[in-house]
Amino acid sequence: MIEVIGLSKHYRSKKAVDDVTFTARPGRVTGFLGPNGAGKSSTLRVLLGLDAATGGRALIEGKRYRDLKDPLRALGALLDGAGSVPERRAIDHLSWIAQSNRIPRGRVREVLELVGLADTAKQRVKKYSLGMKQRLGLAGALLGEPEILVLDEPVNGLDPDGIRWVRTFLRDYAARGRTVLLSSHLMTETADTADDVVIIDHGRIVTQGSLAEVTAGHASLETAFFALTGDRTGSRW
Ligand SMILES: Nc1ncnc2c1ncn2[C@@H]1O[C@H](COP(=O)(O)OP(=O)(O)OP(=O)(O)O)[C@@H](O)[C@H]1O
């Protein structure tokens, strides 16, 4: 389970995240949704221990990321693509992560198969398309067979088949009792994937609940968002 409690992150006078509270539960895909600049990445960066909070807490199974004993087995994350060295071969990138986290080498083959990169694993990452880099990032997140997955815009650069594949994959992952937190600015895509939705805008939570609760009385998640925020144009998405 992920618990974000009264979290704030300020950059000088900019309140990127302002008193944000939500929970992502096991067995559910939670969509963390908001337009560009809403505060999604800032929230995730604090959750993953990459930035310090200005106030509040972000907890993984009750602990801060840096206090986790075996972080890769607790939580797998995909932020900003694969995070790999372009000159390195994909398989070497994953083997290096596996080795430095005491994950058996055989698991590298497994995750490459899982994300559909087994046949191209020996290519250098710089030859990969954006979609392949996303898959490689996901493979890295899956190495430790984590109970929790945190993915920032995972379908960026994927073609329709890739998008469908990620959706099915995440739904299956959650169906096995795991926690999936999926950050996105894509409302239709999130509505197709998530069980629960947390909507953030200008650093503050606008609404949260099951998809059915949040969209009740609205034609779609999109119209719900526009009604809740008073956004008439959708120009920030
Ligand atoms: N390092 C930083 N220094 C100053 N301001 C920042 C920094 N990082 C983010 N911000 C600002 O904080 C706000 C929230 O940004 P954040 O990246 O968290 O939003 P987001 O919802 O992830 O949007 P996007 O999808 O565009 O990344 C924005 O106004 C952004 O310009």
TrEMBL record:
PROSITE patterns: ABC_TRANSPORTER_1, ABC_TRANSPORTER_2
SUPFAM superfamilies: P-loop containing nucleoside triphosphate hydrolases
Keyword line: ATP-binding, Nucleotide-binding, Transport
Pfam families with a match to the protein in the record: ABC_tran
Keyword Cell membrane: no
Domain of life: Bacteria
InterPro entries cross-referenced by the UniProt entry: AAA+_ATPase, ABC_transporter-like_ATP-bd, ABC_transporter-like_CS, P-loop_NTPase
GO MF entry, a single one: ATP binding
Domain annotation ABC transporter: ranges: 2-227
Family note: Belongs to the ABC transporter superfamily.
Protein's name according to its UniProt entry: ABC-2 type transport system ATP-binding protein
Gene source species: Streptosporangium lutulentum
Taxonomic lineage: Bacteria, Bacillati, Actinomycetota, Actinomycetes, Streptosporangiales
